[in-house]
Amino acid sequence: MHQKLTLVGNLGKDPEMRYTEAGTPVTNMSLATNRTYTKDGQQVKETTWFRISVWGKQAEACQQYLSKGRQILVEGRLVTDENGNPRVWQRNDGTWAASFEVNADTVRFLGTGNGQAETETEEIPF
Fold first, then answer.
1. For residue 93, what are the CA distances in angstroms to 86, 89, 100?
2. What are phi and psi of 123, to 5 degrees?
3. 53: helix, coil or strand?
4. How far apart are CA 58 and CA 36, in angstroms?
């Protein structure tokens, strides 16, 4: 059974690229997704953050063309611990945190970088 996750959101900071020991480029990005709903008559805005890892030529393109605030669409798979759960760790202040991590298969550039979507997607040169 194959797992596929599709996310649309905005980058929380500029992408960060590095190279593995084998020389493969990998770019890490922080993606915010938003959901708005009504609870007890009040509008609630919920933001969920994802850590996105992009590999190879797509990693280089993301590093070159994307920046904080840019809207993107990501297709990939959720990275889990050995039990199928999000990665959990203890912060320096002793509190616990969890991370939703995604290995991207495809990244599509949307919008203009100011958080406003456009109807056209930008062509990626790879």
1. 20, 11, 20
2. -70, 135
3. strand
4. 31
Q: Do 71 and 10 meet the contact criterion of CB atoms below 8 Å apart?
A: yes
pLDDT the model gives residue 90:
87
C-alpha span between 125 and 88 (Å, rounded): 36
pTM of the model as a whole = 0.78
Phi, psi of 104 (to 5 degrees): -80, 135
Measured in whole angstroms, how far is the alpha carbon of residue 38 from the centre of its chain?
A: 26
Cβ distance 31 to 10 under 8 Å? Answer: yes
pLDDT band, residue 111 (cuts 50/70/90): confident
Which run of H or of E encompasses 120? none
Distances (CA, A) of 58 to 22, 24, 31, 51: 17, 11, 16, 16
Read off the pLDDT of residues 59-89 as tens digits, 9 standing for 90 and up: 999 999 999 999 999 999 998 888 888 888 7
Q: What is the DSSP letter of 55?
A: E
The whole-number pLDDT of residue 17 equals: 98
